[in-house]
Amino acid sequence: MPQALNDAALDQLFRTARTYNAFTGEVSDDALHQLYGLLKFGPTEANSTPARIVFVKSEEAKAKLGPALSEGNYKKTMAAPCVAIVGYDMRFFDKLPVLFPHTDAKPWFEHREQDNLAWVAMRSSSLQTAYLILAARSLGLDCGPMTGFDNAKVDEAFFAGTSIRSNILVNLGHGDPASIFPRSPRLSFDEACQIL
């Protein structure tokens, strides 16, 4: 990397970025293509890229999502311009001959027990969710990630008959500053880190 990002970019991505509970505006299909065009470059285990994303924008799709939401997340999610359902493909290893071409990595995963395989897929799709958040912020969008939903209902509504399972939801749009809480504390370096 040639140089560090400037303070304005670091603020937009981290320091002043917040989790929003209400959104305005629209999220264009072009913005979603740009967002994926950025997040896809983030590293995952063996370049497995197990995340599969459904961008929910239509009223019909929101009606399918609604019954899976917890009471506290229902209104804000239904009102968000777009909701990203980030899932993970339990058969991500089928893509490894293309995604990891320099060695035969498919056997590393295809015969693992389901619980172990789910852990690998969930871990990397969680990384990809973080990349989605940073990509959205870099494009001027705000985010509201959440896990307050019934995964089984989301899987039935959006991924039935597939090898995909839901992981995290992320509301996307232009955040309403009135919807955020005061910033919660963070651990200091000495509380969270060691240099050995």
UniProtKB/TrEMBL annotation:
Q: What is this protein called?
A: Putative NADH dehydrogenase/NAD(P)H nitroreductase FHQ07_10620
Q: Which Gene3D superfamilies does the entry link to?
A: NADH Oxidase
**Presence of keyword Iron:** no
Classification via HAMAP family: Oxidoreductase_RutE_HadB
Question: What keywords is this UniProt entry annotated with?
Answer: Flavoprotein, FMN, NAD, NADP, Oxidoreductase
TM spans (from-to): none
Question: Can you name the source organism?
Answer: Thermomonas aquatica
Q: Which top EC class is given?
A: oxidoreductase
Task: Cite the Nitroreductase domain residue spans from the record.
Answer: 16-158
